[in-house]
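stage 2 :: seqdesign
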C-alpha cells in the first residue's frame, strides 16, 4: 500500500494531522506519522524501508517542549538535502506554521509546495489529492527507472554496454536511491554490503509500486 510519511516533532500536531489524512486520503493510501529521526542523514534508508512515496514535513523540527518527542537540532532543510541527494524526484510537501522561515525560503525550490496549517485545515482533501497525484507520478517513474536499470545492468554484465549506457546506469542508481551513504574511508566490502542492502530495499519498494500500479489499472 502506498504511504505518505508525516514528519512533525510535536506529537499533538502530528496526531491531529494524521487523523485528517486518514479521513481524506484516497482509498489504497496510508499515512505514516513519525517523529524526526535522530540523524538527518538516515532518511533515505527510512523511506526505502517503509515504502514511502510522499513526504510531508514540518519545517521547524528543532523546537523544545513537553509535546516534542525525539528532539533534534536540525530543520527541514537537512531532511530535504539528504533526500534530494539520493531520491531527487520523491515528492516533498511542507505543512508549517512558519512559512517565512529563512531556512525554508532557501529551500523553496526543492519542495513541491509549502502549505500553512490554516490552509490545510480549511481544505485537507484538496491538498491530499495533490500529494497522492504527485506520489502516483513518482511511483510510475520509479517503476520505469527500475526496468531501465535492470536492462542496463544486464548489458553491462554481458559486456555490451557503451559508455553512454554506463553513465546512464550510474545516474539511475542515484535516482532510485542506490547510492550508499558511506564515507571515503569505509572498506570496499562494507560499501558493497551497503549497496546490496539498499538494492533489497529498493526492490521491496519496487514490488509495492508495481502492485499499486497494477491495482489502479484494473
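stage 2 :: out
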Amino acid at each position: 500500500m502506498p504511504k505518505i510519511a508525516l514528519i512533525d516533532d510535536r506529537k499533538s500536531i502530528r496526531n491531529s494531522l494524521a487523523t485528517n489524512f486518514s479521513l481524506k486520503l484516497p482509498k489504497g493510501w496510508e499515512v505514516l506519522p513519525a517523529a524526526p529521526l535522530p540523524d538527518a542523514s538516515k532518511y533515505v534508508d527510512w523511506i526505502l524501508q517503509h515504502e514511502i512515496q510522499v513526504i510531508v514535513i514540518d519545517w521547524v523540527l528543532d523546537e523544545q517542549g513537553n509535546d516534542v518527542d525525539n528532539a533534534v537540532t536540525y530543520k527541514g532543510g537537512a531532511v530535504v538535502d539528504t533526500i534530494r541527494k539520493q531520491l531527487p524526484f520523491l515528492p516533498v510537501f511542507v505543512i508549517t506554521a512558519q512559512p517565512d522561515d529563512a531556512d525554508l525560503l532557501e529551500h523553496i525550490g526543492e519542495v513541491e509546495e509549502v502549505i500553512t496549517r490554516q490552509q490545510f485545515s480549511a481544505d485537507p482533501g484538496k491538498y491530499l489529492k495533490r500529494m497522492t497525484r504527485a506520489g502516483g507520478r513518482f511511483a510510475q517513474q520509479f517503476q520505469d527507472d527500475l526496468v531501465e536499470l535492470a536492462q542496463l545492468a544486464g548489458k553491462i554484465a554481458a559486456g555490451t554496454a557503451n559508455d553512454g549506457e554506463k553513465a546512464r546506469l550510474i545516474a539511475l542508481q542515484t535516482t532510485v536511491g542506490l547510492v550508499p551513504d558511506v564515507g571515503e574511508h569505509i572498506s570496499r566490502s562494507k560499501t558493497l554490503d551497503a549497496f546490496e542492502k539498499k538494492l533489497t530495499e529498493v526492490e521491496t519498494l519496487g514490488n509495492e509500486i508495481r502492485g499499486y500500479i497494477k491495482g489502479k489499472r484494473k
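stage 3 :: structure notes
- The first strand starts at residue 3 and ends at 7.
- Helices lie at 11-24, 43-49, 76-86, 102-106, 117-122, 124-158, 163-175, 188-217.
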